[in-house]
Amino acid sequence: xxxxxxxxxxxxxxxxxxxxxxxxxxxxxxxxxxxxxxxxxxxxxxxxxxxxxxxxxxxxxxxxxxxxxxxxxxxxxxxxxxxxxxxxxxxxxxxxxxxxxxxxxxxxxxxxxxxxxxxxxxxxxxxxxxxxxxxxxxxxxxxxxxxxxxxxxxxxxxxxxxxxxxxxxxxxxxxxxxxxxxxxxxxxxxxxxxxxxxxxxxxxxxxxxxxxxxxxxxxxxxxxxxxxxxxxxxxxxxxxxxxxxxxxxxxxxxxxxxxxxxxxxxxxxxxxxxxxxxxxxxxxxxxxxxxxxxxxxxxxxxxxxxxx
Length: 308
What we know:
Blueprint: E1 2-3, H1 5-22, E2 48-49, H2 55-67, H3 71-90, E3 102-107, E4 116-122, E5 125-132, E6 135-145, E7 150-152, E8 155-158, H4 162-174, H5 177-183, E9 184-186, E10 209-210, H6 216-230, H7 235-241, E11 249-253, E12 262-268, E13 271-278, E14 283-289, H8 297-307
Parallel strand pairs: 9-11
Antiparallel strand pairs: 1-6, 2-3, 3-4, 4-5, 5-6, 6-14, 7-8, 10-11, 11-12, 12-13, 13-14
């Protein structure tokens, strides 16, 4: 939970504008079952679809999304959305994928003393933020990409999650043999991120190598990799989520060469980061979750202490 009047106000303003343009069913009740929800597969989901909105409301939905992301992460998110059309073409247009197949939801009343949540979500993108007064609690934040890489000859045309992959491989290469033996826990990656679409991201087994055991070069790269995920968020949120090295672990599964299916995770006391690349190494899922604070659980606990 981060106290930031400017950020909370910008989210409140954007959400209020969206509600005024869309009307019912926005906002949903705060205690609606759809609030604690993450689904990154191509399904119908709670909320209002962009396809159903007029252009001004659609623009307002994107402005709300932008309040919860840093400038470069917002660009990543829009690149992920646009890949729906690329994927649809590669599949022969048989599934009817469309870049307007994204949904926006608001739960509770923006600007009230009580907490409220907004979410922007669709295939390979899910961003949830909970707000109460000037406090903002982020997570889950999911970014995926299929195809993860589009090339023209030797040139990369599209690769939205390049930092998430490149910094991880650089970290793996910087590990000593002993450090690598501790970090790598399986020869093959799981089929997906292990937290999946669960409303509660339970801490995973403490596999991997401890940050305190790393050589200086690897330690610096580990900090950079954590930063790749935290820097998806506005800077004040990112700063507050930065974990101490004493509690951070890095774990890897799968081949150790780019272009192959692979998986890694970073885990600390209230931070879970997962990345999984499957389908021949060209279909990526990545997520930032907070097992004790997803969907604003920390903010809600503080609100109950203060007002109830």
